[in-house]
Amino acid sequence: MKIAVYDEKIGSERLTADELAAIGPLHLSAAERVEGVSGRAVDFLQWYAAWRSRHGAEGQPMPKRLGVRAADEFEASVPWAQLERALLLYRQEDGQPLKKGYPLRLYVPDGSSDCLNVKSVVQIRFLYEGDPQEGADYGFRNQISPDQLRKREAK
Predict the structure, then answer these.
(1) What is the DSSP secondary structure assignment for residue 54, as one 8-state letter?
(2) Which segment of 12-26, 46-60, 109-123 scores lowest on mean pLDDT?
(3) How far apart are CA 126 and CA 147, in angstroms?
(4) Distance (Å, rounded) from C-alpha 151 to C-alpha 146?
(5) How far apart are CA 155 and CA 152, in angstroms?
(6) Domain regions of the chain by residue span
(7) Segment 61-73, tens digit of pLDDT
(8) Where residue 111 falls among pLDDT bands split at 50, 70, 90?
(9) Per-residue DSSP letter, 141
(10) pTM for the whole structure
């Protein structure tokens, strides 16, 4: 399964969890930052710096927020300033793919939420609009068309 990475100023690509992790220079055990969590992770901000460099975008402005979407339509928007200790969990401790949260799991310790985590991340988006001072915003964002609503009301 590939994770979609979007940046309106830099470009986009689709990567497997291993391809994405290989870009990051700092790999660590998730337990170093999140108590009770095991597995192999990559430091998010260092990963992003390497990803920007890979796209020749060092001179571009920095995003204000990180947006992620999970396979189950859960979404989160996190202020950039809260990502200092964020990590992307990509493998279990034994090197196998994640059993919970496949293909990728985002952990944001020490943010406006005690430890925001988003499992089964399938989309990463770098956001340049929005208030970087607001706290993290997260929840399910089911998209229902007006036709779907009419059908439900008719039942």
Answers:
(1) H
(2) 109-123
(3) 31
(4) 9
(5) 5
(6) 3-154
(7) 999 999 999 999 9
(8) low
(9) -
(10) 0.85
